[in-house]
Amino acid sequence: MDDPAEAFPYDFFDQTTGRVGITLSGDEALDTWTLAHELAHAYQWAFDPLAYEAEPSWIHEGLAEYLVYVELGSRDPTAARAFLEHAARETLARGLPFERVFSDVYAASWERTYPVAMLAIALLAREPEGPAKLRAYFRAHGPTHPARALRRVFGFGPRELSQRVERLAHELGGPGSRSRSGVFDRTE
Fold first, then answer.
1. Residue 32 forms part of a structural domain
2. Rounded to 5 degrees, what are φ and ψ at 21?
3. Domain ranges, residue 152
4. If we measure between CA atoms, which residue out of 18, 5, 29, 115 comes closest to residue 65?
């Protein structure tokens, strides 16, 4: 089968060719989100194909979701806020073992990690020098050492990241779903 679209009759990014494919739904918002998500994977891959292959799934999916959030926020901050709050509610509803998501190279049921991974990338991006540290993190870990690289670059490991994400999820996904910290009041 030479055509990845035949093997994957849904939205995909093929890391062997850099090819993106999506199935248009007719819903402009959903199609925009899907295209932005898959193009984010292509961007990550083009930036450094070898690092992309070694990255844990939470980084791939979290960064793709985060870039959708940033893109959405540039056009509609209210919709971006709703997207973030939805990710928080999904994170809480799924009851994922946070620390395992950030420790495993490829978390079991990776598709379940999208919302928690997006919140993690959003938090890391908001750290002092966050974008530069994210780039350093992407380069620092190998296929089996993402937790060690997290500690080296950000100064904390999976356990603290898990705790921070869980606190944020409760704050954003709780009654009223309005952040009291103001962390995500602006998009960049």
1. yes
2. -140, 135
3. 27-173
4. 115
Residue 4 lies in a domain: no
- CA–CA separation, 1 and 47 (whole Å): 27
> Helix (H, G, I), strand (E, B), or coil: what is residue 13?
strand
- Residue 19 pairs in a beta bridge with 14
pLDDT in tens, 173-183: 875 555 444 44
Over residues 48-105, the pLDDT tens digits come to: 777 777 777 788 888 899 988 888 788 888 888 888 898 888 888 877 667 667 765 5
Domain count for the chain: 1
Kindly state the helix (H) or strand (E) to which residue 21 belongs, with its residue range.
strand 19-21
Q: Which of 187, 1, 153 is nearest to 76 (CA)?
A: 187
pTM for the model? 0.77
HEC letters along 60-91? HHHHHHHHHHHHHHHHCHHHHHHHHHHHHHHH
C-alpha distances in angstroms, 54 versus 50, 65, 79, 93? 7, 19, 33, 29
Asked, for residue 5, whether it belongs to a domain, the answer is: no
